[in-house]
Design goal:
alpha+beta, Thiol Ester Dehydrase, Chain A, six-stranded antiparallel beta sheet, 4 helices, 6 strands
Length: 149
């Protein structure tokens, strides 16, 4: 288990996650298929050539899931009780097939749980970047985290 317990986090702590991931066409097509999303902007190359992007863009919900997923091993693996919410989600730049994503996480806030004495709430601020260091996604996620012992 490589996740951290509630007491091991501090407000302002920053993680430059070492795990990166190149997004493939298959990632995008399969995610759209699994979520029943027929948006031609994600799936139809000819349609997408006529848009301002000139090519297909990756499904934003896949992008969000990837950005959060990259953070798990170094922050919450085995020590979280679950996500309580995600807010302030934004996608500043599109993700294209072949983009490589890296993520930075900052601890925005912490507080003890009022209903669970063995847990605390942490607000994680996740920022995803592409290989050109352009911000591609931002999210504030509240996690219910285990305490030690």
């Amino acid at each position: 288990m490589s996740g951290l317990y509630y007491e091991e986090f501090e407000v302002g702590m920053e993680f430059n996650h070492s795990l990166t991931r190149t997004v493939t066409e298959m990632d995008n097509v399969m995610f759209c298929a699994m979520t029943h999303n027929p948006q031609p902007l994600h799936l139809d190359e000819e349609f997408s050539k006529q848009t301002e992007y000139g090519q297909r863009i990756v499904n934003s919900l896949f992008t969000l899931g990837l950005v959060i997923g990259v953070t798990v091993a170094e922050t919450t693996l085995g020590t979280t009780l679950g996500n309580l919410g995600m807010t302030d989600i934004r996608f500043k730049n599109p993700v294209f097939h072949g983009d490589t994503i890296r993520v930075v996480t900052r601890i925005k806030s912490m507080r003890e749980s009022k209903s669970r004495p063995n847990a605390g709430l942490i607000e994680f601020e996740h920022i995803g970047y592409n290989q050109r260091d352009q911000e591609i996604a931002y999210c504030v996620r509240t996690g219910l985290m285990r305490k030690k012992g």
